[in-house]
């Protein structure tokens, strides 16, 4: 069972599934229904982004990587690259079935991905463009593309949900490098932690966590009466739980470092919205 779980993590299947679940959650909040082509497009996009990123990291690692995921992509570089090409073709074929409004927003996502890959892996501007912030923007926007494309207008509520979700994703991507500091340093991979050190990133993470908790609580108090009553409140509990789990990761690093628990828990929070979907 553990080997299967590690395989799922190495192939970013859990991250992709979490993105799809989160997008369905956002769609339910906004009162829109996603088509199958939208979910396929999101799954393809997120999986390709993460896989291509890992392939680049694996290729530039000197010797055998000490990072489990990078080592996996080093070992199976060609098979994974071949599968990625096939998945890309599936995504290209799926474009035919996407509504034009979704495709237009998808082009913005594609531009962000091009900036991400180009700046970090081709131009190697690691010290200018921080991977964690760009990745958080791309992941969050990817989750929101389909639901946003179905809305006639975007109000304050839409921006509120996006900001809260973005801060959750950003915190997740700031916490992970804290756990992977040693492997990143050994493999000569740059992260915000290797650039600025653990104390700075811990403080930054704490500030973002506190800010997000305040936003969620304010949403419970001020948005609940004008939104969907108990249903909106229950959706806020999901965001609240996701933020609290990330706080726990930050507060108890020794516990979550063992057996890479941080990876299971940190990526697992994006399955929490499934609770709301089943209500």
Automatic annotation (TrEMBL):
Keyword Cytoplasm: no
Cell membrane is among the record's keywords: no
The entry's keywords: Membrane, Transmembrane, Transmembrane helix
Transmembrane segments: 7-26, 38-56, 76-99, 105-123, 133-151, 157-179, 200-222, 237-255
Protein name: Ubiquinone biosynthesis protein UbiA
Organism of this sequence: Roseivirga ehrenbergii (strain DSM 102268 / JCM 13514 / KCTC 12282 / NCIMB 14502 / KMM 6017)
Lineage of source species: Bacteria, Pseudomonadati, Bacteroidota, Cytophagia, Cytophagales
């Amino acid at each position: 069972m553990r080997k299967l779980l590690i395989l799922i993590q190495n192939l970013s299947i859990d991250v992709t599934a979490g993105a799809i679940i989160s997008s369905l959650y956002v769609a339910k909040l906004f009162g829109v229904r996603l088509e199958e082509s939208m979910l396929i497009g999101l799954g393809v996009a997120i999986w390709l982004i993460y896989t291509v990123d890992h392939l680049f990291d694996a290729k530039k690692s000197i010797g055998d990587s000490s990072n489990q995921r990078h080592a996996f992509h080093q070992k199976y570089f060609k098979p994974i690259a071949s599968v990625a090409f096939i998945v890309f073709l599936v995504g290209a074929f799926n474009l035919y079935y996407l509504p034009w409004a979704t495709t237009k927003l998808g082009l913005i996502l594609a531009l962000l991905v091009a900036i991400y890959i180009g700046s970090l892996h081709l131009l190697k501007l690691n010290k200018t463009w921080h991977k964690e912030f760009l990745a958080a923007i791309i992941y969050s926007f990817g989750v929101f593309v389909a639901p946003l494309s179905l809305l006639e207008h975007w109000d304050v509520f839409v921006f509120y949900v996006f900001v809260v979700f973005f801060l959750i994703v950003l915190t997740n991507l700031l916490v992970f490098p804290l756990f992977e500091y040693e492997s990143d340093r050994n493999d000569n991979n740059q992260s915000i932690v290797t650039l600025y050190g653990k104390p700075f990133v811990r403080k930054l993470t704490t500030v973002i966590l506190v800010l997000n908790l305040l936003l969620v609580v304010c949403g419970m108090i001020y948005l609940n009466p004008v939104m969907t009553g108990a249903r909106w409140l229950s959706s806020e509990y999901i965001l609240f739980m996701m933020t609290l789990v990330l706080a726990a990761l930050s507060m108890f690093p020794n516990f979550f470092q063992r057996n890479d628990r941080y990876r299971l828990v940190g990526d697992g929070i994006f399955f929490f919205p499934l609770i709301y979907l089943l209500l």
